[in-house]
UniProtKB/TrEMBL annotation:
The lineage of its organism: Eukaryota, Metazoa, Ecdysozoa, Arthropoda, Hexapoda. Pfam families: ANF_receptor. Its main location: membrane. InterPro entries: ANF_lig-bd_rcpt, Peripla_BP_I. It comes from Psylliodes chrysocephalus. GO terms for cellular component: membrane. Keywords: Membrane, Transmembrane, Transmembrane helix. This is Receptor ligand binding region domain-containing protein. It is found in: Membrane. Residues 31-158 form the Receptor ligand binding region domain.
Length: 381
């Protein structure tokens, strides 16, 4: 239904017949079903609808760039005013490029990767229906007052980001985190060149805390050594630019050899920071990080934690596939060796079943106790 709402906002409510093109990757039956249901519901609502959709639907292997390009041209020739659908990460760039070049809106349930930032100055015609949830996870953890996190994940892709992600609430550590993240990405470029390069480009667009005005927050970072801070004090004697950009440009090729003191200038700027900013403090810490390959590994790991400290509260973030996360929670409820009231789970994925869709952030903040045992099993199965 949100497809229809988005198109209405673009000013097509006065059209009697509106043609849309839909391209789906093979194996996305759930997304196709949701699309067909939304179209059917809208077109059958005779009393309130002001226009009717006619969709041209194609299901292909979108990894074939040549076939995808021909299909896009065919869709354009049909007179569609918008493209809809879900494609693989490898083919998203192709469709996204066509969308921007011909100014044809492309609506997708989610982005396989970030697209042009609003600050880039270019009009972006790709629209994602799913918001980014990483900051929401951090905000949720802060809201519930969790002080220590047990983090379980099922993909190595997260390793390079996890420590920076969970240190994000600390303004003091932000300059160091940004610089170290860039260094790690640069070092990883030979292993995964495509992913690393795209990640570097995106991070470079958000280097607010490495600017001349905010880099001095590192003086309050306990993890920055005294030698580095001494060099930063010496660097304060360097004359800064008359105009200090909010976001700096860095030499990526030499970033591995850079340190925090290389970005510090102007004693006046330090005085401005003291007067205008109150450094933050870390709200929570990552107690344990563990990669899991299946549900059994997760349960073995949780039993080990249970043996070490049975009565303390455990706050677990499950950053894994939907099915794995569901199975972990259900298996925990059924496992008599694991505690009930002192476990709290935060699931980062979309949880759904035949009757309901639970929001992307499912928080069992009340713990798993015997009262909610039956209801939990019924909702997740």
């Amino acid at each position: 239904m949100e497809y229809c709402a988005l198109l209405t906002e673009w000013g097509f409510s006065d059209l009697v017949h509106s043609f849309v093109g839909a391209i789906f990757e093979q194996g996305t039956d759930d997304v196709q079903t949701a699309f067909k249901f939304a179209m059917l519901q809208h077109n059958q609502n005779v009393s309130s609808r002001k226009f009717e959709f006619q969709a041209y639907v194609d299901v292909i292997n979108t990894a074939d760039a040549f076939k995808l390009s021909r299909l896009i041209c065919t869709q354009f020739s049909r007179g569609v005013f918008s493209m809809l659908g879900a494609v693989s990460p490898d083919s998203f760039d192709t469709l996204h490029s066509y969308s921007n070049t011909f100014q044809m809106p492309f609506v997708t349930p989610w982005f396989p990767e970030k697209v042009l930032a609003p600050s880039s100055g270019f009009m972006d015609y790709a629209v994602s229906m799913r918001p980014e949830y990483h900051k929401a996870i951090i905000d949720t953890v802060k809201y519930y007052g969790w002080r220590q996190i047990i983090y379980l994940y099922d993909s190595n892709d997260v390793l390079i980001y996890i420590k920076y992600w969970f240190q994000a609430p600390s303004a003091c550590s932000a300059p160091r985190n940004d610089l170290e993240l860039l260094k790690d990405l640069k070092k990883n470029e030979d292993v995964t060149p495509v992913i690393a390069r795209k990640a570097i480009n995106k991070v470079c667009g958000h280097l607010w805390y490495v600017s001349e005005e905010l880099i001095v927050l590192s003086f309050f970072d306990d993890k920055v050594g005294n030698e580095t801070k001494k060099k930063m004090v010496e660097a304060l004697k360097k004359e800064g630019a008359d105009f200090c950009p909010k976001r700096i440009n860095v030499d990526i090729e030499n970033i591995v050899n850079k340190n925090l003191d290389d970005f510090v200038t102007s004693l006046l700027r330090l005085q401005q920071i003291y007067q205008g900013l109150t450094p933050g403090s870390e709200i929570f810490q990552v107690q344990t990080v563990r990669r899991i390959n299946n549900v059994s590994e997760a349960l073995v790991f949780l039993r080990g934690i249970e043996e070490q400290s049975r009565w303390t509260n455990k706050y677990v973030v499950l950053d894994c596939s939907t099915e794995t996360a569901k199975e972990i929670v259900v298996s925990h409820v059924r496992d008599i060796s694991l505690g009930r009231r002192n476990y709290h789970y935060l699931l980062s994925g979309l949880i759904s079943n035949k009757e309901t869709i639970i929001c992307p952030l499912l928080v069992l903040a009340m713990g798993i106790d015997t009262v909610c045992h039956r209801q939990l099993l019924e909702s997740l199965e």
